[in-house]
Specification:
The protein contains ten helices and 25 strands. It is an alpha+beta fold. The protein folds into two domains: 3-111, Serine Threonine Protein Phosphatase 5, Tetratricopeptide repeat (Alpha Horseshoe), CATH 1.25.40; 116-412, 6 Propeller (Neuraminidase), CATH 2.120.10.80. The strands form six sheets. Strands 20, 21, 22, 23 and 24 form a five-stranded antiparallel beta sheet that branches.
């Protein structure tokens, strides 16, 4: 939920848990436009839970609370379900609650902020301060210029978007996205340990509400944990560096752990796992040998990690609970053009997607970005038949695109 964008107080937390607490001013809370709920049924369910928690003391409050639920926004099917609910059928006033429902369903009350949300991926355009929000399935692409140069990003379980951005030669700036204002707020600085090394990989990740910054280069491996209460970073343990000298790496948070894939073109792929609770690393089973090095792009979905090679010829899935790998189908459309850069995996609407850049001419000046979604039942990739065209090169590979619910009207400037 967008806790800080909507309203920073304990009352909203009560709604997020689905239970209104006795000390909350219930009617005042549910009358607010800023509530981040996608459907009014969420508020009805919260009120029901609140009443049932102490039925005898709270049932008589329903007639004063219900008028603030925007029943006019519900479908006829939703209303039918509510009218059949035991709280309505067993109304001690026999008609009080039912009358309130009928009266408020005819009142023209506007939609809340949360009902305008759309799940979108955030793409960073290389060498610029522009970003593109996209939802390929709905054909929505919105470009914005922000006064920051992003390095890496993550989305938290609370739907907060954080990025590390260029600040100076000595530090990165940790910035948080304001959903309502469509801008980035600077939160903290983190020291850069890579300034003397040209080749390095940066990752920002969240685990159990905590942010982690991992940087790896040919000479340094750094892992830091961010404390939001003290606004400070602290060092964490790192895997044995001698074992991790590599040509490529990618880090993925999954199942309350961090998984670090390191790729050496001579020695193959290694997989290390970090447990934040013990601050320790251990080795895991790397992907099986292949003609192409696996893991150039990786993303987590549930308790699994999906990886693909640089040519999108093979896709592998790693089960973090069983420590086992399984091979999936690769790219089905190899005849439509040459790949430009490493394909990028991302998860949207709980489905695995991949963005590939295709060169349309021999000079490499015309590039089309295509999006495919993985069909698990058919074990194959399906083209969404939408193309994102741009003369500039989008970042690919180890940089994972953050996917979050955003206020679409605010992106459009409405």
């Amino acid at each position: 939920m967008f806790q800080h964008d909507c309203k920073e107080n304990a009352e909203q937390g009560c709604l997020q848990r689905g239970v209104l607490q006795p000390e909350c001013e219930s009617a005042e809370i549910i009358s607010e436009d800023w509530l981040d709920v996608t459907e009014e049924t969420t508020l009805w369910e919260a009120v029901v839970s609140w009443v049932q928690h102490c039925r005898e003391d709270r049932l008589h409050h329903l007639p004063s609370i219900l008028p603030h639920i925007r029943f006019n926004l519900l479908t006829s099917d939703d209303m039918a379900v509510i009218l059949k609910h035991p709280l309505v059928r067993e109304d001690p006033g026999r008609s009080v609650i039912r009358n309130v429902l009928k009266e408020t369903s005819n009142v023209n009350m506007k939609r809340r902020v949360g009902s305008d949300t759309v799940e979108m991926a955030l793409l960073f355009i290389e060498r610029t301060r522009e970003m593109v929000w996209m939802n390929p399935r709905e054909g929505k692409y919105i470009r914005h210029h922000y006064d920051i140069s992003p390095i890496t990003a993550t989305v938290t379980s609370d739907n907060d978007i954080f990025i590390l951005a260029e600040d100076s030669r000595e530090s990165y700036a940790l910035c948080k996205y304001s959903h309502l204002e469509n801008k980035w707020e600077r939160k903290s600085l983190v020291h850069r340990d890579d300034r003397d090394d040209d080749t390095h990989f940066d990752f920002l990740m969240e685990i159990d509400g905590q942010l982690f910054y991992l940087m790896m280069s040919s000479s340094v491996v750094v892992l830091k944990r961010y404390n939001q209460h003290t606004n400070r970073w602290q060092n964490c343990s790192t895997p044995p560096h001698d074992e991790l000298l590599s040509d490529w790496c990618v880090a993925v948070p999954c199942n309350q752990h961090i998984y670090l894939f390191t790729i050496d073109y001579l020695d193959g792929t290694d997989l290390q796992c970090y447990d934040p609770r013990t601050d320790q690393w251990c080795s895991k089973t790397p992907p099986p040998p292949s003609d192409d090095i696996q893991g150039h792009s990786a993303v987590a979905m549930g308790t699994e990690i999906f990886c693909t090679d640089v040519n999108f010829e093979t896709t592998m899935v790693y089960n973090t609970e069983s420590d086992r790998w399984q091979e999936l189908q690769g790219w089905p459309d190899r005849g439509i053009g040459d790949l430009n850069g490493t394909p990028s995996l991302f998860v949207m609407e709980n489905r695995l997607h991949i963005l590939v850049a295709i060169l349309r001419d021999s000079k490499g000046t015309e590039v089309t970005h295509l999006t495919y979604v993985y069909d698990k039942s058919a074990d194959g990739w399906r083209d969404l038949n939408v193309a994102l065209r741009d003369e500039k090169c989008y970042a690919h590979g180890y940089l994972q695109y953050p996917v979050a619910r955003v206020y679409f009207s605010h992106l459009e400037g409405v």
